[in-house]
Sequence to fold (228 residues):
Amino acid sequence: MTTTFAPPVMEALPHYQELSPAQMLERAQARYQSLLRRRTVRDFDSRPVDRAVIEHCLLAAGTAPSGANQQPWHFAVITDTARKQEIRAAAEEEERAFYAGRAPEEWLRALAPLGTDASKPFLEEAPLLICIFAQKYGIDASGERFSHYYVPESVGIATGFLISALHEAGLASLTHTPSPMGFLNRICMRPDNEKPVILLVVGHPKAGCQVPVHGGIKKPLEQISSWL
Ligand code: IYR
Fold:
């Protein structure tokens, strides 16, 4: 026997804006040009960022599509010095193990053009860190677990929205992935159903900030797409 459910409540598509073909192309090109200017930054100054700016970027991330619209994400924003220091210490300990042996040679070769190493001063110097948690499952009002669907895909999309929103707001970011990063649950006081997936470092690039050329080389359209 199949269960029947109440039909969904529908509404007219809100705020849909039809563009002319010329406007479409102009907007698509403008967005591409803007995103082309985004580079991953590893050298931040400590200038603080207005909380309202970050909150709007988080609201933008929260508009992302997700499996069954369950929005299986949580963004923990860390600004206090003590927590940042603790995160840096814990991350660098893991990274030292990674660079000094845990990482296979092939992985280190792939990273060489970026020049990364175990030293992560940006974790302390940047004004804020956004720890992105994926909710592996939900917990309802009575404390019962329920399934979340397409969690990695959903959190990945929301993270993309967030990085893009931060960039549009004139901020630089770094998608940092200390591994393992279970220590972030304790530091961010997040429950067991949440798994930290990305530590986004956010702020202004330091004056004279250098970035690896390698990071700016993007694959051509013919390589990343095909038309059928
Ligand atoms: N987590 C390490 C190593 C690292 C791995 C990848 I894949 C990168 O794109 C960059 C770094 C680190 O942060 O140094």
Observations:
- The CA atoms of residues 52 and 58 lie 10 Å apart.
- The longest strand covers residues 194-203.
